[in-house]
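Lab notebook, bench 4. Still working through the backlog of constructs that have no structural model yet. Next entry is a single chain of 226 residues. Request: give me the structure tokens for it.
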Amino acid sequence: MFNNIIALIPAKYNSKSIKNKNLKKIGDKSLIEIAIDETKKSKQISKIYLNSESNIIAKIARKKKINFFQRDKKLSKKNTGSNLVIKDFIKKLKLKDNDILIYLQPTSPFRKIKHIDESIKKFLQKPELSLVSVKKNDQTIFKSVKKIKNNVMIPIFNSKFLTMNRQDFQDTYISNGSIYIFKIKNFKINNSIPVKKFQPYLMSKQESLDIDNINDLMEARRAVLR
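Model written out:
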């Protein structure tokens, strides 16, 4: 028996790549508003928290009638990782070990209620394993190389892979940053999202679009107009 499924939407005001990124609009809604509106449609989520250091973003939470969690300024720096934000949230709200957190970054504008509810349903089938949304890699990672020095490159994996046909490799997947679900007690083990082993939730390339730079934002806006 689980106590709560709690949604946390992290939305710092500052952004390294795009100024005030989380307030940028896709269609007639900001990224924050899109994330909130889709999350509110879920009947499986007991509470929704918008997490930010900004009073401007706090007003959005009040307007949307969801909870607001004031983030410390020290956790709002450009290099502050998700794990520190989540750790602070868990500690100050005194979440219980069997509570479940679903972490929904607002930079995934094509994550819909369908994805949220399907991922929760899948997670609850094996709640001791975290769930992470993924997308299929367009290219095989096994042909990857890295630069060392003096304009010389070496294979990251076995050198024989560089000359093999792409069809000879297994499909690989990459986290798309859209959905993370885990039990609080499993986060506390290492104070990090437990992803050493996890359940995947597969999303398409467009559904997985993550707004990281201005080109991603333009692509998302074009997709809405199609």
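Notes after review: The mean pLDDT is 93. The first strand starts at residue 5 and ends at 10. Flag for follow-up if needed.
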